[in-house]
Amino acid sequence: MKFAALAAAAAVFAATAVAPVAASANEAAVKYRQNNMKAVGAYMQNTVAVLKGEVPYAEQLEANALGLAAAAKLSPAAFKTDTSGSDVKTTAKADIWQNWEKFEGGLTMMAERSDALVAAVQGGDKAAIGQAVQAVGETCKTCHDNFRTK
Ligand code: HEC
């Protein structure tokens, strides 16, 4: 009896959960990629804060760089869903999915340069670390200029 009631409730829930799939799938996709970018942004900002000596957490530099590289590698998949036909609020331009290879290339470059930053941090040379951070930063700006609304 109890099981039957539960099963019935689950069936109702499944039916209502499936109905509005188009709208909520786009919403979820936008939320996911924005969270991914927030993670990229947070690791980048904390990496810079440590490098500038704004916070006394030098021992966390490598972990922040590794976090940045990990988040950057999630980005290509995070942007795959074309939400340009929906009315979900986003700053992503429709161009992304019309020029996917170029866009994905930007994300790949961000990930590669983040890996290079990790290597520079592990190498310990301050000038090299500074250059590597700057190289990552250029990928953010180039892509945002091209593929993000202001
Ligand atoms: C190849 C393209 C590309 C690269 C590279 C890129 N971004 Fe983004 N980023 C985007 C797009 C597109 C959005 C808008 C996403 C949306 O609103 O759906 C975005 C959004 C953001 C956001 C706002 C997230 C939110 O809360 O809505 C932050 C923060 C951000 N990016 C940081 C960065 C940083 C830092 C880097 C470099 C380390 C970077 N991005 C590299 C394309 C890129």
UniProtKB/TrEMBL annotation:
Annotated GO MF terms: electron transfer activity; heme binding; iron ion binding
KW Signal (keyword) present: yes
Annotated residues for binding of heme c: 140, 143-144
Post-translational modification: Binds 1 heme group per subunit.
Record-linked SUPFAM superfamilies: Cytochromes
Keywords: Electron transport, Heme, Iron, Metal-binding, Signal, Transport
GO cellular component terms listed in the entry, alphabetical order: periplasmic space
Signal peptide (from-to): 1-19
Transport recorded as keyword: yes
GO term, biological process aspect, one: electron transport chain
InterPro entries assigned to the protein according to its UniProt record, in alphabetical order: Cyt_c/b562 (IPR010980), Cyt_c_II (IPR002321), Cyt_c_prime (IPR012127), Cyt_c_prime_subgr (IPR015984)
Listed name of the protein: Cytochrome c556
